Model the fold of this input.
Amino acid sequence: MDLLKRLTEIDAPSGREDMVYSLIADMAKELGYEVTTDGLGSVIAHKKGDGKKLMLAAHTDEIGVIVNYIDDNGFIHFSAIGGLYKKELQKRRVRFKNGTVGIIAADEDVFEKTQEINKMYIDIGAKDREEAERLVQIGDTAVFDGAFCLSGDTVISKALDDRVGCYILLKAMKNIKDSDNDLYFVFTSQEEVGIRGAKTSAFTVMPDFAIAVDVTDTGDTPDAPKSDVRLGGGAAIKAMDRSVMCDVGVVKTLKKLAQDNAIPYTTEIMTDGGTDAGAIALTGGGVKTGGISVPVRYIHSPSELAKISDINACIDLLTKACEYNWQI
Ligand code: CO
Ligand code: ZN
Done:
């Protein structure tokens, strides 16, 4: 779990992901992969094979905020990077790249009624603009402060979305024993702002098949919509999300691999968001794409919650998928 902790502790909102890239690139090279990056920064780790081209993707960015104005009293005004739940931002801590910590605040009514981000501000305790500008500039980004904690089989942290996906890819890269596939492990940039890195990197790779690894909502909290996906249910095999209808053959193959290898799984239909799978599927003349997801509660909060057993099920399933002899 040490690697997952390291990955989540890096502060890397969309477009400011260089620290994650360098850690991943170093590890991929150590594992004997050939590593390149594309124009948007995605890291592409390649292991040559004579079989079909298989692309495995997980995104490196996390949600955050960007400074757009600092007022005379030293309060910092901001815009969202990715999908923030505005109602929940009250008194939330954010951390800037230089370590400066601030609190998101506003009049009570803003959070309860209008949720206008323009009326919220970040308080870093500065007495005026001049003092604030010594620490934070317009254009600077910050992420949620949410320490990694492990209790029993449960992990809670910021940025499990989608560092846990990066972790699963890295583990699979290490675990693969024998594969004929031409393997491309892609750590994609800027997913949270519109699935951008997956689009450019899939164009570079032009795979025959693809699997995106990300987090997905669970249906097991008291107020959640009904869903098969649950904590402890194993790997969630994606059938659909808002960006993709997964290829029927890929879904079937993943389920068969799970059954044959006694890997627990559920079927995922995510109505609330898209993933890298959507962009990859629309590349070139179309790519047969599926997804393996980690069931996570409280996605896009500083306290995303997952089960180690589910994460391990995803690693096992992805490893088997990489070893499987894919045919069109
Ligand atoms: Co997300
Ligand atoms: Zn994600």
